[in-house]
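Minutes, project check-in
Item: structure for the 224-residue chain
Input as provided by the requester:
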Amino acid sequence: MKRVLIICLAVLVTAVMANAQTIVGSKHDLSTTGGTPATDVTRVCVFCHTPHQASAANGQYPLWNHTLSSTASYGTYSSSTLDATDVTDLGGATAGTAPTSNLCLSCHDGTVSVASMYNPPNEDTTPTITAISGRIDSGGLIISTANLGTDLTDDHPVNFTYDTALATADGALNDPATDTAVAALLINSKVQCTSCHEVHDPTNVPFLVMDNTASALCTTCHIK
């Protein structure tokens, strides 16, 4: 019986590993393995993380290494149907206290090179940037639709508290206090970019946290 259980466990682990997704080879792989755009850097994780936190990053979680944008204001989405009262402009964030959405914007607002790091890899402190038609220019700036720009007034709001009070005020939102699927998407009780996007898993394009067939991601929070 013990042998059967061990075999079953081994099969399960193998199946999980076979189906596990990875950033390697995805559009978030900026190393030579991904072929874009830093053609002389072999490390994959270094563009976003450093194992020994650079002092210039001031302890930004999670061991953040990519230079943050200096954009002073992005604006915020507003609507007569928006009941969140604390939607906060992401502009002017400083390393050490920046919300997770600012980490995404450090590449995706199109103002900072994807290869700009606080603590460059020892193998190459000044990575060579190769332009990729329709995606990244010679300066390392995103030029595709993944470039959100510095005006977020026409984008889904982020950086606001999503709690029972908001669900009650809105009347068409699932309550994170009783809905674990909603709660799992929140970052410190707030909606951030990573509530919808899983940056390390390209399975669901564009790096969504789940399959959005029939708007499944949207209806996790919104009652429609």
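Outcome recorded: The chain has five helices and two strands.
No further action items on this chain.
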